[in-house]
Design goal:
Shape: globular
Radius of gyration: 18 Å
Number of helices: 9
Largest sheet: 4 strands, parallel
Structural class: alpha/beta
Helix content: 25-40%
Strand order of the largest sheet: 1-2-4-3
Order of helices and strands: HEHHEHEHEHHHH
Number of domains: 1
């Protein structure tokens, strides 16, 4: 990830400043981990690119974990607010993405994560420590009956990873319905409307339905 993004950034920097396209970083699942690894911290990420979209980040993502741990007091781990959403935002669906108010300064950084995505919430700390996301009220698509048990919950969520992409879109590790909205939010293209994004999302859905 570091070699790829550094190489692209170097070539991009050689273009005349007025002719450079936006440089936006994207990564899904382990791809988000590789993309994050190219930057030492959030400040460097926001300094070097024009935006970033990270989808279904694994629990071991270092930058994601730093931002989560530094979330505003009172905001939940499953849908955190970081510095009033001024630079980094999190969304679980179209509603939570569109409902966030206040200025969102460029470059925009967006994480998409479902409460029911085992890839996001599985990690070694589950073995011996109750995570915040199981101490808080459940996220919108996580079963309220789920409880934390030492060692047991670790293996339950690990097993869920094996089938994480099988739930319908909008749940588990399946984000294809939300990704077009994420791209539109991060890049904020001129004269682009919600109807335009909806057309793209519908086209993506049709492609997913094809054999």
């Amino acid at each position: 990830g570091d070699e790829l993004i550094s190489g692209v950034h170097e070539r991009w920097s050689q273009l005349p400043e007025g002719q450079r396209p936006k440089l936006v970083v994207y990564g899904e699942s382990l791809g988000s981990q590789s993309a994050e690894a190219a930057f030492d911290d959030l400040s460097e990420l926001r300094r070097d690119v024009d935006g970033a979209l990270f989808v279904g980040p694994p629990n071991s993502n270092l930058l994601w974990r730093t931002i989560i741990d530094d979330r505003d007091a009172g905001s939940p781990e499953v849908l955190p607010v970081h510095e009033d959403g001024g630079g980094v935002r999190f969304a679980t669906d179209v509603h939570t993405l569109g409902a966030q108010q206040g200025p969102w300064d460029a470059p925009r950084i967006l994480y998409l994560q479902h409460a029911s995505d085992p890839v996001v919430w599985w990690g070694p700390r589950l073995l011996i420590e109750r995570p915040a996301w199981l101490s808080e009220p459940p996220g919108q698509d996580r079963s309220p009956s789920m409880r934390w048990y030492p060692i047991v919950t670790f293996w339950q969520v690990a097993a869920d990873i094996m089938v994480g992409t099988l739930p319908p879109v909008g749940h588990g590790h399946n984000y294809e319905d939300l990704i077009p909205y994420g791209w539109a939010a991060v890049t904020a293209p001129a004269e682009w409307t919600l109807a335009d994004t909806q057309r793209v999302a519908e086209a993506v859905a049709r492609m997913g339905d094809e054999p």
